[in-house]
C-alpha cells in the first residue's frame, strides 16, 4: 500500500510529464495522464473555449468541470486557484476580477508553475501570480481570499480533510469556494482503485460522494450546494488495461458510478479557525 508521500511523488512526476508534453497529447488522454485511450477526447473535461479570458496555451484539458463559471467572482476579488496547472482557471478568474483584483495560483509541480508564469508573461497580467506549494499547506496567509476555485485536483490529494481545513483558513469570513472534482457512488473494482496510473488519471483517488460532502460540512462550511453534476463514462479501452472482459461487463452492470461534481460552499462570517489541538480562535 502506497504512503501519502509516495502517492504525492507519483502524482508530481506524472503532472511534470504532462506539463512538458504537447496539448494534443494531453487531449487524447484520461485526465492528461498520457495516451491511455484511443478515444480522441478527454473523458473528464468540459469545454472552456467559450468563457471570457480563455487562453488556449494554458488549457491542458486536465479538468472535470468549469468551477470558475459558477464561482460568483466579482470585480476586485482576490481569487485562489488550487492546483492551478498552466493557469487556465486563473486567467478566466482574472477576466472576472478585473485589474483591481488579484489571482493566486498554487501548484506543487515546479514544471506547471513555470509553464503558468510563462503564459502570464505572454498576456502581460500583473495581478496574476503563481506559487509553488502544497494545497494541504498553502503558502498564503489566513483570511486572504474572497473566492477559491479548483478543477479536478482534490481527488489527487490523499489528505482531502487537510485541504478543506486550509480552504477555510485562507478564505475571508463570508468568502466561498466553487470546486469541481471526481467522486464515486459505490466502490470501484480493487484493480482500478490500486492502479497508480488511474490515480493520476483522476479516477481511483476519488472518494464517495457523501463522504466528500460530509468533509465539507464537518469543516464548518455552510450553504453547501452541488452546482453541477455529470456522470463520467470510462471507455472500455482504458478499463481493459486493468480488468478482463468479464470484469468490465460486471462493472458496467453494477451500481458503481463515477461523477464529476461542482460544489459551492461558504465560510461563515463568524467562522472559527483551529490552529492546533488546544488552540481555536
TrEMBL record:
Name the UniProt key words of this record, in alphabetical order: Methyltransferase, S-adenosyl-L-methionine, Transferase
Start and end residues of each Methyltransferase domain: 73-220
What reaction does this catalyse? arsenic triglutathione + [thioredoxin]-dithiol + S-adenosyl-L-methionine + 2 H2O = methylarsonous acid + [thioredoxin]-disulfide + 3 glutathione + S-adenosyl-L-homocysteine + H(+); arsenic triglutathione + 2 [thioredoxin]-dithiol + 2 S-adenosyl-L-methionine + H2O = dimethylarsinous acid + 2 [thioredoxin]-disulfide + 3 glutathione + 2 S-adenosyl-L-homocysteine + 2 H(+); arsenic triglutathione + 3 [thioredoxin]-dithiol + 3 S-adenosyl-L-methionine = trimethylarsine + 3 [thioredoxin]-disulfide + 3 glutathione + 3 S-adenosyl-L-homocysteine + 3 H(+)
Q: Which SUPFAM superfamilies match?
A: S-adenosyl-L-methionine-dependent methyltransferases
Which EC number(s) does the record attach to this protein? Answer: 2.1.1.137
Q: What class of enzyme is it?
A: transferase
One example of the protein's molecular function in GO is: arsenite methyltransferase activity
Q: Biological process GO annotation list?
A: methylation
Provide an example Pfam family for this protein: Methyltransf_31
- Look up keyword Chloroplast and say if it applies: no
Membership in a protein family? Belongs to the methyltransferase superfamily. Arsenite methyltransferase family.
Q: Which NCBIfam families match?
A: PRK11873.1
Name assigned to this protein: Arsenite methyltransferase
Upper lineage is: Bacteria, Pseudomonadati, Bacteroidota, Chitinophagia, Chitinophagales
Amino acid at each position: 500500500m502506497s504512503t501519502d508521500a509516495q502517492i504525492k511523488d507519483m502524482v508530481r512526476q506524472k503532472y511534470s510529464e504532462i506539463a512538458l508534453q504537447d496539448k494534443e497529447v494531453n487531449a487524447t488522454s484520461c485526465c492528461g495522464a498520457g495516451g491511455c485511450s484511443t478515444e480522441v477526447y478527454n473523458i473528464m473535461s468540459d469545454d472552456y473555449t467559450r468563457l471570457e479570458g480563455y487562453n488556449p496555451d494554458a488549457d491542458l484539458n486536465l479538468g472535470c468541470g468549469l468551477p470558475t463559471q459558477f464561482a460568483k467572482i466579482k470585480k476586485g476579488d482576490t481569487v485562489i486557484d488550487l492546483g492551478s496547472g498552466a493557469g487556465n482557471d486563473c486567467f478566466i478568474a482574472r477576466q472576472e476580477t478585473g485589474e483591481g483584483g488579484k489571482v493566486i495560483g498554487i501548484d506543487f509541480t515546479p514544471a506547471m508553475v513555470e509553464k503558468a508564469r510563462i503564459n502570464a508573461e505572454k498576456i502581460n497580467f500583473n495581478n496574476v501570480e503563481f506559487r509553488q506549494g502544497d494545497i494541504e499547506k498553502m503558502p498564503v496567509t489566513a483570511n486572504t481570499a474572497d473566492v477559491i476555485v479548483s478543477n479536478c485536483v482534490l481527488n489527487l490529494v490523499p489528505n482531502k480533510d487537510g485541504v478543506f481545513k486550509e480552504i477555510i483558513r485562507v478564505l475571508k469570513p463570508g468568502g466561498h469556494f466553487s470546486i469541481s472534482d471526481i467522486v464515486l457512488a459505490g466502490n470501484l473494482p480493487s484493480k482500478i482503485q490500486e492502479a497508480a496510473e488511474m490515480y493520476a488519471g483522476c479516477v481511483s483517488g476519488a472518494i464517495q460522494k457523501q463522504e466528500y460532502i460530509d468533509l465539507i460540512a464537518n469543516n464548518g462550511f455552510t450553504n453547501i450546494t452541488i452546482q453541477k453534476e455529470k456522470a463520467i463514462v470510462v471507455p472500455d479501452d482504458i478499463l481493459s488495461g486493468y480488468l478482463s472482459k468479464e470484469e468490465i461487463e460486471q462493472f458496467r452492470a453494477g451500481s458503481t458510478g463515477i461523477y464529476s461534481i461542482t460544489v459551492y460552499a461558504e465560510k461563515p462570517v463568524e467562522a472559527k479557525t483551529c490552529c492546533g489541538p488546544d488552540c481555536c480562535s
